[in-house]
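Re-run with default settings, no changes from the original entry. Doing this only to confirm the output is reproducible before filing.
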Amino acid sequence: MDLIQSILMGIVQGLSEFLPISSSAHLVFTSNFYKVFKGIEIVHESNQEIFLDIMLHLGTLIAVLIYFRKEILEILKALVYGLKNKDYSAQDFKLGVYIFLGTIVTVLIAYPLNEVAGGLVFKPSIVGILLVFTGILLLFSEARAKKYKSHKDITLKNSLLIAIAQGLAALPGFSRSGLTIATGLLNGVDRTTAARYSFLLSIPIILGASMVYPLVKIDFHEIITYNWTAIIAGTIVSGLVGYICIKYFLKFVSKFSLGIFGYYCLIVGVVTAVFFSIN
């Protein structure tokens, strides 16, 4: 792994983590296209690449924590106040509970899929097909959303359905933000509210993956041999790009349809599925 590859993947992670186009799919595509270009066998993936992927997600986690710092603080304050005073009526308290329950549901769905998801890293053609499904779901949810009036409240029911969608997004090609926002739209939640809740719901999962996974899977004696210049550069780039992406994506969804991302997923999914099927 070199500096150019790390920075390139940092840009890809920062953009695709929050856009509904599947960050995992784009990291798989970028890594494998790079290997094809360099003449490296696709079945080869080093521990250093796995660690870089974790650090790139940590970069985007920092971005979402900084961007939503006020909302996160309000939710935490509401949880403390509500539990202390047995007052559970505040919307921020409910959001905190929904995020907690949603995280549990996500883990229950995603954990059994981990082994399958890991195997798909070496099968970019299948990841492309799953990305096509993401595109279809985005287009379908937008078409359905136009038929009824949306609302701005997250309820327990739609929060759990969104959490199930997030769990399924453990599979590369299923966009986490795409599936969660589309699920919100299908349940009558407006685009902006669905997007903001999707980002907040992602925090515990990304935090867990970034902190728990290394403690269990990574060989700390091996880490010191990694290209830390490249890893740090990629992490910083993913965080900066991720922050900018959150800011402008929320402005975009408040005014425009997600259909453009649906068509993008369809095109990229088909192209990559065909490309890696013949290479």
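Residues 3-277 form one domain. The first helix runs from residue 3 to 16.
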